[in-house]
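BUG-668 | component: ligand-complex export | severity: low

The export step for 2-(butylsulfanyl)adenosine jobs runs without errors, but we want the raw record kept on the ticket for reference. Input record follows.
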Amino acid sequence: MSLDRIQTLRAELHEHNRRYYVDDAPSVSDAAFDALLRELQDLEGQFPESFDPNSPTQRVGGMVVKSFEAVPHKRPMLSLSNSYSSEELIEFVERAETSAGEPVTWSAELKYDGVAISLWYENRQLVRALTRGDGEKGDDVSVNIRTIPSIPLTLPPDAPQELEVRGEVVYTFEKFEALNARRAAAGQDTFANPRNAASGTLKMQDSAEVARRGLSAFIYAVYSEDRQFESHRVALEAIRGWGFPTPSREHRWVESCAQVADIQAFLAYWDGARQHLPFAIDGAVIKMESTALQQRLGSTAKSPRWAMAYKFNAEKALTPLQDVVYQVGRTGAITPVAVLEPVWLSGTVVKRASIHNADQIAKLDLHLGDWVSVEKGGEIIPKITEVDHSKRPAGALPVVFLSHCPDCGTGLQRREGEAQHFCPNTDGCAPQIKGRLEHFVHRKAMDIEGIGSETVDQLVDLGLVQSPADLFDLRGEDWARLDKFKEKSIQNALDGLAASKEVSFERVLFALGIRHVGETVAKKLAKHFGSMEALSAASLEALENVGDIGPMIAASVGDYFTDLAHLREVDRLRAHGLAMNYQAAEGASDILGGKTFVISGVFTHFTRDGIKAAVEQNGGRIASSVSGKTDYLLAGEGVGPSKRTKAEALGVTWLTEEAFITWIGSTE
Ligand code: IVH
């Protein structure tokens, strides 16, 4: 009896779910839904033998996946060829119609900017969900996909026994912003865009967290041995009937024997209207509707001959420039930032944009009140790309770059050959002092838990701390002067400082904040010289002899260690017990033999930092962009298109994560 009830409840909940998430027409209240779900959870608890991975109770996740199994696709997961102008598109349409030799019905639909997935159903049950991977094999992310409420876990009786559908997993801007806000508050790195966030989320080990994050999905392709559909439209209508979230009427357009002008109208409409969509798209896809024609035209090794993507240009918005403010970085670099009248761009409100430097202001001939064009690249902070001079208000004043530091009033300088102005008052300018301390305690540097940027602000404002070494001299009573610092937070800060004595020499070196010495350079220097003592005594020539260290970095390191104040600071840090000698990491090897790797995409067994560390620990070198010197493109899921194209053009060897692991013989 109860087992029957379990089946009934599951079916009912699946149906309510679909009405809510797919049809957007809920049929019960949230409270009634929760009551049914709780009843089902109770019953499943009493009858563990009824376990079903596709039960609605499994949507909340909870399973922890150690690693994602790589599984071959049933049919290769191709990509689309791209066009960037309507001329290219017309050319494609004409060519395709000639090959077809008959009138063609085209459709156009949105190109969702997310992560491609393939879902397999057997006996009308979801059995597997794979990422695209390398197109031949994908990662089994079923556990995480099951948490997406709009993806059906079971199909109705009129669906075929065997079915594969493909689509895109995306974040709505709302969920994406909420996720980034939570991460920023927790001191974690934020995602650059919804696509990266979706890709990262699908590869999470904790499916309960995936469930909380709230992914969405769109399904746009259907394959079945058991059922033939005469057209793409008929296929999408059928699967919508089975509960799949297909592109809505608005997001898809189809007309028999459409003229090219109709397709262009769809593209032009969405190029503008996309800014009101709740999720990101990066273009549109035009497809031949007829299944018979699709089969006849077939595919090349990479993409179908019956479809083409049209990529939009980066989104732009025009808005007036209200003001220019200046930020002082930890190295004293001055960055102008535009304050804009708030404007919608790619789903978020933009209020600020970066302008880089004084030359950029001159080049744009910026005036206050100018209407400027802002664009979002991969970065979170948009940039100004153009000025509409025709809209300049009468009497508008030109933006004049500062002559003095906005914080300490010192005259600004500019080094030869550098674009950035800087404030030379290194030891007396508060944002520089604070910036250096924040850098020192940062997760990637000394990783001092218990001391964040607010704490640094207070410590500097109270005159308690000037340099990192001062942090280690603070006593309990000093900490007690800070706002909201009670016993527990004081202990946390002290514990954090004590723990930082275990941090490796290369990170201590990075934490010092020497100009041009980022993580990678710090590692190279640490490995090459072996100790702070040897590094600080190194001649310019010796510094330049380290692989990949150019004259600019060498000069900066040389300058740093000729300053007595810096030598004293380093001595104090040494006295406090910080690591000053290089120790080769355990498990280090030279297997990769100095080959150069470019890393792209998201990996299953490694974090981004982890795979970099694995390359370096095994004697490989990391480069950030593909060039003639690159030996391997170490490719995860979602390799960047420019890296891919360049690697293909230069014939760089493509190395999958699996092959890499086999090569080095272990994972992180
Ligand atoms: S059809 C054979 N339709 O774009 C390929 N793809 O750049 C069939 N995409 O890998 C794909 N929206 O991840 C198709 N409406 C849509 C799409 C779409 C986004 C993605 C998909 C594909 C990539 C190609």
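Assignee comment: Attached the raw record above. Residues 78-80, 109-112, 116, 168, 220-221, 285, 304, 307, 309 surround 2-(butylsulfanyl)adenosine (CB under 6 Å).
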